[in-house]
């Protein structure tokens, strides 16, 4: 019975070969000795061409678009620092194919909005069109500086990169919440819920944090600001609203403040007494205190609405990978992924179905984006620990492991597709590896 090789799985096998740990297992050679269910190939075998990165960002070479016998030198101008940072774009693996949209945005290419007391820069569909489901903002506040009281139609999830940030919020039921969120910890605000952010003086330099929103069209330049609203409602109405003389509002700003300097909050600050009570669930989460799952080659911590109740639309895997280690080949069934590299060097291939695949290189400060169901891996291609955030738009973190899938599928079926040996299949893992060592 002829069984045709499926092109999707041929591509998957190419991705597999990128993992040296898997490549050390004898991958199936044509099983000419097999007596039963020997596949009848209808397409050629996947290429064994070496497809590693040809240089790294710190190489001292003249990078050229040449891989093996393919390509040729550049005769026109070269931007060598950019070329060194993107070896998989200039000399891509031969497994790349088709028109996968750009999936990399260095925040250093974003416009930076400079304010007295800090700055903000963002990534959204305007600079990375593939990122339809999520957007991000990198924000810096000097000690005491405030990102003013505001709200927006998207949910806001945050990771503190440095220093600590005091957050405040009030729910529609009138319950309040105040907390200081430390480096490596999270907060989350549901859509429309008003909140504020203020740098504490715990770090004399203040704070910097990463904000992620559950809508790719989000722009931090079009949020609803307290001062902007007050400046655009007749003063008589404001006085009537609070049942106070208009003179009580003589000094409200005539335009938005957005980010502005102020005195740092007291270190023991408490939320005002609230007759409705404090919120029953916290709006911050101590990710830095959580114990990581240890794997050969790295660690992972997962936070979603099962352990951080209020985080209904955004989940995270905080991952560290040692040099050469790899987040295994996997995909997220229905969830878009927004990645942020905190430090180190990463290589990711997006497999987009229909023969389409593209590989990108990332480093600290870069954003990556992977649409739902796109097969991918994250490989540490540097000489230092890779630390990154895998942020999913979901209430529940989910992924499908290629390794586990194939281990739990009838071996004859796997053999019929991939023509691998029983020995090879016996090495597939019935539990998710999550991370594979070098
Ligand atoms: C994202 O925001 C835009 C503009 O506000 C809105 O039209 C769209 O419906 C939102 N998308 C989702 C998935 O909520
Ligand atoms: C984390 O691990 C440490 C050391 O193994 C242990 O003492 C501690 O109880 C763990 N914490 C939690 C929250 O599991
Ligand atoms: C890793 O070390 C090698 C050998 O010293 C060097 O060529 C390469 O540039 C380094 N890679 C990075 C990302 O620093």
UniProtKB/TrEMBL annotation:
<dbReference type="InterPro" id="IPR014710">
    <property type="entry name" value="RmlC-like_jellyroll"/>
</dbReference>
<protein>
    <submittedName>
        <fullName>Oxalate decarboxylase</fullName>
    </submittedName>
</protein>
<feature type="domain" description="Cupin type-1">
    <location>
        <begin position="107"/>
        <end position="250"/>
    </location>
</feature>
<dbReference type="InterPro" id="IPR011051">
    <property type="entry name" value="RmlC_Cupin_sf"/>
</dbReference>
<keyword id="KW-0732">Signal</keyword>
<feature type="compositionally biased region" description="Polar residues">
    <location>
        <begin position="265"/>
        <end position="283"/>
    </location>
</feature>
<feature type="domain" description="Cupin type-1">
    <location>
        <begin position="285"/>
        <end position="426"/>
    </location>
</feature>
<feature type="region of interest" description="Disordered">
    <location>
        <begin position="26"/>
        <end position="58"/>
    </location>
</feature>
<dbReference type="InterPro" id="IPR017774">
    <property type="entry name" value="Bicupin_oxalate_deCO2ase/Oxase"/>
</dbReference>
<keyword id="KW-0479">Metal-binding</keyword>
<feature type="region of interest" description="Disordered">
    <location>
        <begin position="260"/>
        <end position="283"/>
    </location>
</feature>
<dbReference type="Pfam" id="PF00190">
    <property type="entry name" value="Cupin_1"/>
</dbReference>
<dbReference type="InterPro" id="IPR006045">
    <property type="entry name" value="Cupin_1"/>
</dbReference>
<feature type="compositionally biased region" description="Low complexity">
    <location>
        <begin position="26"/>
        <end position="47"/>
    </location>
</feature>
<dbReference type="InterPro" id="IPR051610">
    <property type="entry name" value="GPI/OXD"/>
</dbReference>
<feature type="signal peptide">
    <location>
        <begin position="1"/>
        <end position="24"/>
    </location>
</feature>
């Amino acid at each position: 019975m002829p069984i045709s090789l499926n092109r999707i799985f041929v591509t998957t096998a190419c991705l597999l070969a990128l993992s040296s740990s898997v490549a050390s297992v004898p991958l199936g050679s044509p099983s000419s000795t097999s007596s039963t269910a020997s596949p009848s190939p209808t397409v050629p075998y996947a290429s064994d061409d070496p497809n590693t990165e040809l240089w790294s960002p710190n190489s001292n070479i003249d990078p050229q678009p040449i891989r093996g016998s393919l390509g040729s030198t550049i005769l026109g101008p070269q931007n060598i620092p950019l070329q060194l940072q993107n070896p998989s774009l200039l000399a891509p693996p031969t497994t790349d194919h088709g028109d996968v949209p750009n999936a990399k945005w260095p925040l250093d290419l974003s416009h930076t909005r400079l304010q007295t007391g800090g700055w903000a820069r963002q990534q959204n569909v305007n600079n990375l069109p593939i990122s339809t489901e999520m957007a991000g903002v990198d924000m810096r506040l000097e000690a005491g500086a405030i990102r003013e009281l505001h709200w927006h139609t998207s949910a806001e999830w945050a990771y503190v990169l440095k220093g600590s940030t005091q957050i405040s919020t009030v729910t529609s039921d009138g319950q309040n919440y105040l907390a200081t969120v430390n480096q490596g910890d999270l907060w989350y605000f549901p859509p429309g819920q008003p909140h504020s952010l203020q740098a504490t003086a715990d770090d004399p330099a203040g704070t910097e944090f990463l904000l992620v929103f559950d809508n790719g069209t989000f722009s931090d330049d079009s949020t609803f600001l307290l001062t902007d609203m007050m400046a655009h409602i007749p003063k008589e109405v404001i006085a009537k609203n609070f049942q106070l003389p208009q003179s009580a509002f003589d000094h409200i700003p005539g335009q938005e403040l957005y980010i502005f300097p102020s005195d740092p909050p007291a270190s023991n600050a408490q939320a005002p007494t609230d007759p409705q009570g404090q919120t029953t669930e916290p709006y911050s989460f101590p990710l830095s205190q959580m114990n990581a799952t240890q794997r050969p080659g790295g660690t992972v911590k997962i936070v979603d609405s099962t352990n951080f109740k209020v985080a209904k639309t955004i989940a995270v895997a905080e991952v560290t990978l040692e040099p050469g280690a790899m987040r295994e080949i996997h995909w997220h069934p229905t969830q878009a992924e927004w990645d942020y590299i905190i430090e180190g060097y990463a290589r990711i291939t997006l497999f987009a179905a229909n023969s389409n695949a593209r590989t990108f290189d990332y480093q600290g400060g870069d954003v990556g984006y992977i649409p739902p169901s796109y097969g991918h891996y994250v490989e540490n291609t540097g000489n230092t620990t890779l630390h990154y955030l895998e942020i999913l738009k979901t209430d529940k973190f989910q992924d499908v492991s290629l390794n586990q899938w194939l281990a739990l599928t009838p071996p004859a079926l796997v053999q019929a597709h991939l023509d691998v040996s029983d020995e090879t299949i016996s090495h597939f893992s019935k539990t998710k590896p999550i991370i594979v060592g070098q």
